[in-house]
Specification:
The chain is mostly helical. It has helices at residues 3-27, 37-72, 81-91, 97-111, 113-139, 149-204. The longest helix is centred in the C-terminal third of the chain and has 56 residues, at 149-204.
Length: 212
């Protein structure tokens, strides 16, 4: 199977399965806790960051696939970022080849580094939601009113709501972090595969082509 089909099918399969599990959880009612207004607002912010990271992963994977397919056909477009990397590898002497390869590896790793940062940010955003939930829950407790039976019930309700926000946002950040990291793994595999092919093609002596 060509690199194009392999990477794109893996990306599609992972996200289809994840969406299917999400739909099953919604049908079972496990996501009902996100309906509370304050939980939904925080969760929406976490979800927006995740979508940004997932879109970036898909965008980067498409570029990697195009480069892999063009290399598989023996053509390297000079105007593309990977064409520039190929040109540097091709023009490096035998003594500079190892250094040029390491620089190419660092540059390609930097191109997907933003996805890793976004994935890590999801965990921290979930923890921020945890702190906010605890603050909301504890702010509703009035130590001076604990002896008043009529005021205990509202305080317990507010405490439960705060704990709900804390738990749901933490769970959301952790699950989306795992989801995005799985996609990052696919992009990383594609990047490693592309670098390997770039090095092989420079060794075979093919010339880059002009244009996109």
């Amino acid at each position: 199977m060509s690199p194009k089909h392999t990477l794109l099918l893996r990306f599609a399969l992972v996200n289809i399965v994840a969406l299917g599990l999400l739909g099953a959880a919604w049908i079972q009612g496990w996501l009902d806790g996100f309906g509370e207004k304050r939980t939904w607002i925080i969760s929406l912010a976490i979800l927006a960051v995740f979508i940004w990271g997932l879109a970036l992963a898909g965008f980067r994977l498409l570029h990697i696939n195009r480069a892999l397919v063009s290399l598989d056909g023996g053509a390297v477009a000079k105007a593309t970022p990977y064409g520039a990397i190929f040109e540097r590898l091709r023009s490096a002497g035998s003594d500079e080849r190892a250094l040029a390869t390491n620089m190419a590896r660092m540059e390609m790793g930097n191109q997907i580094g933003a996805i890793r940062y976004i994935a890590n940010a999801l965990v921290f955003l979930g923890l921020i939601g945890t702190v906010i939930g605890f603050i909301i829950g504890l702010s509703g407790i009035d130590a001076a009113a604990t002896t008043d039976v009529d005021k205990i019930a509202p305080m317990i309700t507010e405490l439960i709501n705060g704990m709900s926000i804390a738990l749901y946002t933490t769970l959301l950040g952790a699950v989306l972090n795992i989801w995005l990291n799985v996609n990052l793994r696919i992009v990383t595999d594609g990047s490693v595969q592309l670098l390997s092919m770039l090095v092989d093609k420079t060794a075979s002596g093919i010339q880059p082509v002009t244009g996109q």
